[in-house]
């Protein structure tokens, strides 16, 4: 049974989410603020985290930043009352896998949770290992290493890299990535794709300013070269 952590300071929201998730046969834990949530994430294993942005003691942005710095790659869906693009971009850049703006449809949230769970489960099947720039990458286990030292990539970063790798030597447009990875979420733009590529280059390329593997095709998108 998949275990989901809700980090949210609104009791009514926690109760609503908990009831619906348990009805879908998920095991559910909760934390009332960012500080408690961070402690639970560091001391327990979860399959997915629902993380509110605006909380006392520690914001969702800070929690996400700290767990990614710790090397914790558990998928994160951020929940917030804010709808501005800059907030979505910030959350994704800090390592979140998805983003829901309140008020949101419970049906849509459950669909996104299931989609992330499917990707996580599917990643355990098959052996897909390759050398990409500085990194030894194992797509099946979502692991990456540089000189035997683990390098943290989020699930969404792995998904972007895997898509490019499977389409090596072909030009992939930003719209292709938006459709394949983000299902053309209205809140996600081409700039989000560019930011993900920037972060991937910093982790993969020996010289991110002069990339050899993830190349820009001006006016279109990107091309992956082994």
Q: What is the number of E strands? A: 12
Number of H/I helices = 8
Mean pLDDT: 87
Quote the CATH topology of the largest domain: Rossmann fold
Q: What is the domain total for the residues?
A: 2
| Helical residue percent band | 40-55%
Shape: globular
Broad CATH class of the largest domain: Alpha Beta
Distance between the termini: 38 Å
Report the radius of gyration as a whole number of Å.
17 Å
CATH architecture of the largest domain: 3-Layer(aba) Sandwich
Task: Give the structural class.
Answer: alpha/beta
Secondary-structure map:
Elements: E1 3-7, H1 11-23, E2 27-31, H2 34-43, E3 48-52, H3 60-69, E4 76-80, H4 85-93, E5 98-101, H5 106-122, E6 129-132, E7 135-138, E8 143-146, E9 149-150, H6 155-166, E10 171-173, H7 174-182, H8 190-204, E11 214-217, E12 221-224
Parallel strand pairs: 1-2, 1-3, 3-4, 4-5
Antiparallel strand pairs: 6-7, 7-8, 8-9, 10-12, 11-12
Written overview of the protein:
This protein is of the alpha/beta class. The chain folds into 2 domains: 3-122, Response regulator (Rossmann fold), CATH 3.40.50; 129-224, Arc Repressor Mutant, subunit A, CATH 1.10.10. Helices cover 42% and strands 22% of the residues. The chain has helices at residues 11-23, 34-43, 60-69, 85-93, 106-122, 155-166, 174-182, 190-204; strands at residues 3-7, 27-31, 48-52, 76-80, 98-101, 129-132, 135-138, 143-146, 149-150, 171-173, 214-217, 221-224. Strands 2-1-3-4-5 form a 5-stranded parallel β-sheet, sandwiched between helices. Strands 6-7-8-9 form a 4-stranded antiparallel β-sheet, with no helix packed on it. α2 packs parallel to α3 (60-69). The longest helix has 17 residues, at 106-122. It is globular, with a radius of gyration of 17 Å. The model has no long low-confidence stretch (mean pLDDT 87).
